[in-house]
Amino acid sequence: MLIFVTVLLTIFFAEMGDKTQLLLVAMSGKYKTAHILTGTWLATVVLNLMAIVVGAALGSYLDMRIIKLAAGIAFFWFAFTALKGDDGEEEERQMKHDLGPVFAIFGSFFIGELGDKTQLSAIALAANYAGGSLLNAVWVFLGCTLGLILADLIGLAAGVWLKSRIPTRALNIISFVIFFVFGVLSIAEAVRLTFFS
């Protein structure tokens, strides 16, 4: 239980103020809360499973330049779709039954968090606590997952609060800026990894 609490607190504080927390603020202006929760929680589970199971070998198999470039493109796409805003009642009715938003949220959250400090923290915690013990590995996984979810719920709550107090057009512009900035930062990181490392 001590492992669980230690890991949960470590991941929770590592995620505070992280880009995916801000992404949830931006997503709340575009997607329904249920879609956001489903997409982010699925991504969180998959990311933490990768961190625990694959561990340190993850970096050997994935080219971070490609991941950062893909993240940048995804963030730009979200930025420009945020400016579109709502395209009417028919599209909203279709989205209620469509898994598209869940997959879009899953993809952007997954790419945004992959190789991020929170996932690297999860890998380090797994290496430190889970060595050879399945029970310890489960505690690390549960602590990482719950810590990430709790921190990101704060970002989502902030987004929902803003959505209820700020005009939709203004929230769309704020979402555009957040996504665009993260797109630029991701592309810049891909360029840095390609030419300067």
Walkthrough of the structure:
The protein has 197 residues and is mainly alpha-helical. The chain has one domain (2-195). 84% of the residues lie in helices and 0% in strands. It has 10 helices and no strands. The protein has helices spanning 2-15, 19-27, 33-54, 58-61, 64-84, 89-96, 100-113, 117-129, 134-165, 168-195. The longest helix is centred in the last third of the chain and has 32 residues, at 134-165. The model is unreliable at 56-60 and 86-95 (pLDDT under 50).
H/E element order? HHHHHHHHHH
Briefly note the structural class of the backbone. mainly alpha
* Number of spatially distinct domains: 1
Sum up the overall morphology in one term. globular
Features:
197 residues, mainly alpha, globular
Structural topology:
Blueprint (H helix, E strand, L loop, with lengths): L1 H14 L3 H9 L5 H22 L3 H4 L2 H21 L4 H8 L3 H14 L3 H13 L4 H32 L2 H28 L2
Helix pairs in contact: 1-8, 1-9, 2-7, 2-9, 2-10, 3-7, 3-8, 3-9, 5-7, 5-10, 8-9
Question: Can you summarize this structure?
Answer:
The protein is mostly helical and 197 residues long. It has 10 helices and no strands. It has one domain.
